[in-house]
Amino acid sequence: MIFSTLEHILTHISFSMVSIVIILQLITLLVNEIVGLYDSFERGMIITFFCLTGLLVTRWIYWKHFPLSDLYESLIFLSWSFYIIHMILYFKKQKKNLSAITAPSAIFTQGFATSGLLTEMHRSAILVPSLQSHWLMMHVSMMVLGYAALLCGSLLSITLLIITFQKEIKKDIISLFDKRKHLLNDSSFFGEIQYMNEKGNILQSTSPLSVRNFYKSQLIEQLDFWGYRVISLGFFFLTTGILSGAVWANEAWGSYWNWDPKETWAFITWTLFAIYLHVRTNKNLQSADSAIVAFIGFLIIWICYFGVNLLGIGLHSYGSFTLTLN
What we know:
This protein is an all-alpha fold and about 325 residues long. The longest helix is centred in the last third of the chain and has 65 residues, at about 190-255. Helix 1 packs across helix 4 (about 95-115). It has two domains: about 1-120, Four Helix Bundle (Hemerythrin (Met), subunit A), CATH 1.20.120; about 135-175 and about 215-320, no CATH class. The radius of gyration is 25 Å and the shape is flat. It contains eight helices and no strands. Required during biogenesis of c-type cytochromes (cytochrome c6 and cytochrome f) at the step of heme attachment. This is Cytochrome c biogenesis protein CcsA. One of its GO terms (cellular component) is plasma membrane.
């Protein structure tokens, strides 16, 4: 009874903190000058992380199994993993650049999990026989940690792709403007005067433009650096999770691989991010090329993690759910 009450308290506190953090995040995005507000936002993220940690530990003690037996618990654990990655980037002093990308993932995942949409799944139950194994902690925790790292790394790569695309558009516009200047220079005396005036305006605006391009280049390098490392970490977790799952499947079902929908999409995810790592380490290809692969991988992960559960079929059907609209 005490643990059940504590679980409800932590759930409500974490959901309330998420609501406050969302408001602070929106205000911080609109008003960059308020440094104290950003610090309050980060304190809210840390408090929410500890609330989620307490929630997971409480369910673990109360139900006497590792809290990864259904979709609700895995969503809480996924959000908890997002918070860890966010805080690593925050304490690495990558404050407003990268943590602003990872924070929404943690916030909205937890907000969805603790909302009323999954009311029926808040109540844990006795584990099905196939889940009553010491492999539950090893396999599922590695898989969810892998999903979290791959999703965060993919988001960093997607942001890199957007910034690079905008940069290329600006380059095309500038090149067109340079051609126009040459035409004006060759046309007439009036065109030469107009060209000189435009040249003066360009010289006046060159300094801030070059500074802006410098910061964009620095941001692209940071996104590429951290995106690659976070995805590499996620790929390691995913590989460990798939291998441990194969061993567990052999113990539970008598076969290492059954081509279950979940297994199939996990293999597709693993293959796609293996391609990402190959493209990323190829010096003949640009960072934008690997970012495109990461973008595809971002979509595939959600199909593997969330979409397959909507079907409710296969050997992993115990992770399916039904939305409850109040």
